[in-house]
């Protein structure tokens, strides 16, 4: 009986320890990702097969992962982090958890305005934040620019998600960059004035509200509509037909774009493998799959995109500002939202 | 040999106790640090909202769970009406639906994949009207969700309290001329007071600790504030300061519960429960209706929505992925539950056989664990462990490496601290029922203490251990915030997956994994409730 107890006492911690270290692999890389696992899994599978490098994944919200890397400090198991939004990537750099990546290949693959000036982070895909509207009630000529959303003719007809959302923060940062703080504040106030309801739900929720007539115009990232069109669900397919995409500011600076991207952590133990993974994700093969599957835009124009995304118009004029500025101006954007009482 | 084993055993538990105390000490020690800007920001702009929201929610959830729980227990114990025995049992079942799943479900009802939306759209073409008719994601919604999910804890504890009293108490009341209402107030209330207090303090702790529902509904409370301070504002000290305020409140609550329970004993002295003739109410159907209403909102409606979602997303099911999810959820829950059982069994035993003040005090402290919200604990575990790892690497002069960080050990430690309470209460009461004469006899045979534990106590305790294991398993399997923050690489559990789906507002995909989690939680609830209902019937 004693032997049994000792056995139990010994075996259980042993099980736990073996459970966590799993089977030792020669080559591995530890990935923290704020993108949902099922979005990147197909690519990771190809990478593992091609290189023999095992990718260990933990997913959570960007802020949680960044704070974890800070808390874990030198002992952090994370080698690289993949997330969305240049603002997030820039903030991570400011928190001193990134390092400069020395890779000729990455520099060749990722256009200059889509990467950190100091080489700390690189874009892996592009999305555009566009105007979506109800074609039965709205004349597209009236909403040609982001600035149109503050027009008094749209009073009570606009719904946009909360300002705590980083996509909105980055859009406002781009307005600050191009037109200055004063104009940005005026815009935010004007849009709030046109809200049909207090901000609630995500981009998909706003699109639903347009379809169901709760409002007529919204801002949303392009891929959400792609998901609806390609959905297996009848309602979503039907809804997709009732809403239209408009790329704003085509006659001037171009539509606001943002990225998903990645960086290598300051204390990465598998730095070379992490660079290999980033290079793989930026290369043609992955770019095509990644962009097609998620209905995003690839980082280079020579890559094929999904037919659905092409049908909205491609190539369109993109805002070419260096995306580092979205991060630099993020705090200012937050303050302006607060002053404009955009919840 | 055996003495060595005893010493080993003692030091073994000592280490466990230290591990246990570490996060709690860590949280409080930060109170001594000077105030910084972030804390001033929180105190000026946010603290009031956290305190007021938390208090409002706790107050109303407490009131509603008491109202629903006690009146249902009263109705099914005292009256005879159609399907009363069925209700007695089924009214416990809402326990099996984790609060955050109810939050997702109720938010989804008038969304485009919801049954309300589609029912009105299909028959009346009123879908868009229903869509913009109401929004449950606010403080009232939180109160509703918490009350409908947690009332069974009060109900469950009141049921035996009412039943274990011979009906004669009420007969006497009747003969003394008390009317129905007076009987309930003057006899019923005092009888169930200890049960209500125990049940409601559990409800309050659960409410204060609830993270996912509050976060999903966008209602800032202490639990979300602690999370926000740590992860969004990036200020550990402020987060820990909030945690220590919350913990202090909770500790007072526990203290209040202990003194208010006092030494009062309303147990049936003869322990005889007479065959009772239940009253037939004047309006049978109103009682039937009340019970049906509660069970409809607590259990049937949520399940209907889950099945509706399943019909939506049936062709998207990935069997292998689901199986992995179930295996990892059940696996970690089973291993952790076993570790906790061994640990608490040991502590309970040591406190029985020794006059060691240390273990006695630690038992008291263990019963606080459940009161510490998961978010607080996760925070209290990460920081000291990574600090220790760094110190070790400096001390032994090797490059810093994660030894425990990012492993299952961290998660198991967090579960241990939070859930030991459940096990220690159950096992301690089990031990108390074993006569000390057994220990003496065993000693006279020359058995060491640990041999006594294994050969004498264990066999007697087995049923107790079994039920503690079930309780632990269910609580761990549905745990969310700690798992979310502390889980290692390549490891996802059902709650984490559900949370991610809800966050992406992909509600219709919740169907299958949600149903699986509910079924896993349902099995032990049914086993337990059958036991309780059966005892009550005797």
Structure characterization notes:
The complex is a heterodimer of chains A (343) and B (538). With 343 residues, chain A is α/β, with parallel strands linked by helices. In chain A, β1, α2 and β2 form a beta-alpha-beta unit. In chain A, α6 packs across α7 and α7 crosses α15. Chain A is globular. The N and C termini of chain A lie far apart (64 Å). The N terminus of chain A is likely disordered. About 2% of the residues of chain B have low confidence. Chain B has one domain: Orthogonal Bundle (MetI-like fold). The longest helix of chain B has 42 residues. Chain B has 538 residues and is an all-alpha fold. The chains are: A alpha/beta (343), B mainly alpha (538). The interface between A and B is large, with 53 and 55 residues.
CATH class of the largest domain in chain A: Alpha Beta
CATH secondary-structure class of chain B = Mainly Alpha
The topology string of helices and strands of chain B comes to HHHHHHHHHHHHHHHHHHHHHH
CATH topology of chain B: MetI-like fold
Label the structural class of chain B.
Answer: mainly alpha
Can you tell me the overall shape of chain A? globular
CATH architecture title of the largest domain in chain A = 3-Layer(aba) Sandwich
Task: Extract low-pLDDT stretches of chain B.
Answer: 265-274
Structural class of chain A: alpha/beta
Number of domains of chain B: 1
Helix content range of chain A: 40-55%
Number of DSSP helices of chain A?
15
List keywords for this structure.
heterodimer; A: 343 residues; alpha/beta; D-Maltodextrin-Binding Protein, domain 2; 2 domains; globular; disordered N terminus; B: 538 residues; mainly alpha; MetI-like fold; 22 helices
Indicate the topology.
The complex is a heterodimer of chains A (343) and B (538).
Chain A: H1 2-21, E1 28-33, H2 37-51, E2 54-59, H3 62-72, E3 80-84, H4 86-94, H5 104-109, E4 121-133, H6 166-179, H7 181-194, H8 203-211, E5 217-221, H9 222-229, H10 234-241, E6 244-246, E7 257-264, H11 271-282, H12 284-294, H13 307-311, H14 324-328, H15 330-339
Parallel strand pairs in A: 1-2, 1-3
Antiparallel strand pairs in A: 3-7, 4-5, 4-6, 4-7
Helix pairs in contact in A: 6-7, 6-15, 7-15
Chain B: H1 2-29, H2 37-78, H3 84-90, H4 99-108, H5 115-124, H6 127-133, H7 139-163, H8 168-175, H9 180-209, H10 212-217, H11 222-232, H12 236-261, H13 284-313, H14 319-353, H15 357-366, H16 374-396, H17 408-432, H18 436-444, H19 449-477, H20 481-486, H21 494-503, H22 511-537
């Amino acid at each position: 009986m004693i032997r049994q107890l000792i056995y139990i006492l010994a075996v259980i911690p042993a099980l736990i320890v073996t459970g966590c270290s799993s089977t030792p692999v020669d080559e591995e890389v530890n990935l923290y990702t704020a993108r949902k696992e099922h979005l990147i899994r197909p690519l990771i599978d190809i990478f593992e097969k091609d290189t023999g490098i095992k990718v260990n994944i933990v997913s959570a919200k960007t802020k949680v992962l960044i704070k974890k890397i800070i808390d874990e400090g030198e002992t952090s198991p994370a080698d690289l982090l993949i997330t969305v939004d240049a603002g997030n990537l820039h903030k991570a750099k400011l928190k001193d958890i990134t390092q400069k990546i020395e890779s000729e290949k990455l520099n060749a693959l990722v256009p200059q305005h889509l990467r950190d000036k100091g080489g700390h982070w690189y874009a892996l895909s592009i999305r555009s934040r566009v105007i979506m509207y109800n074609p039965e009630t709205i004349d597209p000529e009236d909403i040609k620019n982001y600035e149109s959303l503050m027009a008094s003719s749209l009073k009570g007809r606009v719904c946009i998600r909360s300002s705590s959302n980083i996509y909105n923060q980055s859009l406002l940062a781009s307005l600050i960059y191009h037109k200055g703080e004063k104009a940005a504040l005026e815009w935010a106030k004007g849009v709030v004035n046109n809200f049909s309801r207090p901000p609630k739900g995500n981009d998909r929720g706003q699109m639903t509200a347009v379809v169901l007539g709760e409002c007529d115009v919204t801002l949303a990232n392009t891929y959400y509509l792609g998901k609806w069109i390609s959905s297996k669900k009848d309602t979503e397919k039907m809804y997709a037909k009732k809403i239209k995409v408009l790329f704003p500011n085509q006659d001037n600076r171009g539509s606001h774009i943002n990225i998903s991207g990645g960086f290598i952590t300051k204390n990465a133990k598998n730095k070379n493998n992490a660079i290999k993974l980033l290079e793989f994700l930026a290369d043609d093969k992955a770019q095509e799959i990644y962009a097609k599957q998620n209905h995003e835009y690839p980082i280079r124009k020579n890559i094929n995109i999904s037919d659905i995304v092409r049908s909205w118009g491609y190539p369109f004029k993109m805002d070419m500002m260096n995306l580092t500025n979205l991060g630099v101006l993020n705090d200012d954007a937050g303050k302006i939202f607060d002053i404009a009482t955009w919840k | 040999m055996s003495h060595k084993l005893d010493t080993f055993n003692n030091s073994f538990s000592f280490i466990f106790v230290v591990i246990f105390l570490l996060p709690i000490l860590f949280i409080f020690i930060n109170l001594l640090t000077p105030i910084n800007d972030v804390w001033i920001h929180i105190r000026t702009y946010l603290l009031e909202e956290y305190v007021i929201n938390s208090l409002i929610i706790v107050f109303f959830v407490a009131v509603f769970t008491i109202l629903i729980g006690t009146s249902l227990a009263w109705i099914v114990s005292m009256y005879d009406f159609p399907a009363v025995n069925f209700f007695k049992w089924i009214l416990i079942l809402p326990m099996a639906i984790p609060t955050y799943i109810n939050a997702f479900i109720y938010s989804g009802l008038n969304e485009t994949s919801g049954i309300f939306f589609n029912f009105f759209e299909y028959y009346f073409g009123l879908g868009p009207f229903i869509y913009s008719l109401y929004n449950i994601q606010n403080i009232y919604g939180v109160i509703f969700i918490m009350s409908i999910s947690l009332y069974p804890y009060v109900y469950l504890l009141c049921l035996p309290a009412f039943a274990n009293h011979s009906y004669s108490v009420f007969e006497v009341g009747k003969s003394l001329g008390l009317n129905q209402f007076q009987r309930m107030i003057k006899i019923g209330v005092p009888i169930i007071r200890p049960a209500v207090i125990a049940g409601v303090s559990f409800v309050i702790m659960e409410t204060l600790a609830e993270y996912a529902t509050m976060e999903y509904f966008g209602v800032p409370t202490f639990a979300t504030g602690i999370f926000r301070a740590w992860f969004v504002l990036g200020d550990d000290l402020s987060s820990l300061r909030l945690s220590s305020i919350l913990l202090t409140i909770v500790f007072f609550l526990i203290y209040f519960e202990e003194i208010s329970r006092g030494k009062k004993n309303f147990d049936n002295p003869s322990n005889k429960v007479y065959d009772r003739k239940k009253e037939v109410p004047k309006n049978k159907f109103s009682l039937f209706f009340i019970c049906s209403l509660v069970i409809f909102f607590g259990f049937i409606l949520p399940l209907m929505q889950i099945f509706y979602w399943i019909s939506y997303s049936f062709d998207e099911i990935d069997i292998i992925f689901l199986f992995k999810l179930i295996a990892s959820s059940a696996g970690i829950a089973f291993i952790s539950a076993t570790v906790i059982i061994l640990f608490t069994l040991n502590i309970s035993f040591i406190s029985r056989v020794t006059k060691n003040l240390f273990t006695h005090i630690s038992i008291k402290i263990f019963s606080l664990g459940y009161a510490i919200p998961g978010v607080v604990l996760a925070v209290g575990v990460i920081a000291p462990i990574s600090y220790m790892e760094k110190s070790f690497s400096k001390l032994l002069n090797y490059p810093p490496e994660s030894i425990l960080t990012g492993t299952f050990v961290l998660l198991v430690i967090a579960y241990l601290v939070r859930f030991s309470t459940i096990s220690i209460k159950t096992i301690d009461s089990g031990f108390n029922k074993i006569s000390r004469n057994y220990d003496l006899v065993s000693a006279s045979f020359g058995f060491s203490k640990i041999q006594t534990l294994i050969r004498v106590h264990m066999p007697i305790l087995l049923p107790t251990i079994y039920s503690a294991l079930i309780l632990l398993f269910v609580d761990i399997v549905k745990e969310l915030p700690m798992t979310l923050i502390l889980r290692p690489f390549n490891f996802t559990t059902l709650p984490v997956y559900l949370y991610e789906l809800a966050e992406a507002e992909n509600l219709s995909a919740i169907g299958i994994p949600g149903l699986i989690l509910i079924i896993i939680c349902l099995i032990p609830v049914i086993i337990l409730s059958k036991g309780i209902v059966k005892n009550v019937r005797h």
